[in-house]
Specification:
There is one protein chain. It is built from five helices and no strands. It is globular. It is mainly α and 129 residues long. The two termini are 30 Å apart. The protein has one domain. Helix 2 crosses helix 3 and helix 3 runs antiparallel to helix 4.
């Protein structure tokens, strides 16, 4: 039981550090997108961002010998299209408004999910937390 508690604590600390590192990397990406958006169109920035991510995923999959799944391809394609549209819209937003405003709008997605789930999925709020 003690070993489990120690391992859990080590993994939690690694998770916190990885989350912080992820936030730093995405913040740097936002700053770089904002910096180059004056000379490079947002669609081109989104294309190369997507290409870089795809190459990184393929290299990681090959190094760990992970194959592609054949299940759920239509939903995966829909998720890819919607993710690409989000990235295109976000990079366009970064090019047009101040970086802080665009970052705040990007972090508002949980609020929109709650509101839209009430409207479209007819979900309600629980009486108790």
């Amino acid at each position: 039981m003690f070993i489990y508690a120690v391992m859990k604590e080590v993994l939690m600390k690694n998770g916190v550090w990885l989350a912080l590192f992820s936030s730093l990397v995405f913040s740097v990406m936002n700053v770089l997108v904002k910096a180059v958006s004056g000379t490079i169109p947002p669609a081109e920035i989104a294309f190369f961002r997507g290409l870089t991510g795809t190459i990184l995923i393929l290299v990681l999959m090959r190094s760990r010998q992970i194959s592609f799944s054949r299940k759920g391809i239509p939903m995966l394609a829909l998720r890819g299209v919607l993710g690409g549209l989000y990235m295109l819209a976000y990079f366009f937003t970064l090019s047009k408004i101040p970086l802080t405003d665009a970052s705040i709008l990007g972090q508002m997605s949980p609020v929109f999910v709650i509101v839209l789930s009430v409207i479209f999925l007819k979900e309600g709020f629980p009486a108790e937390p």
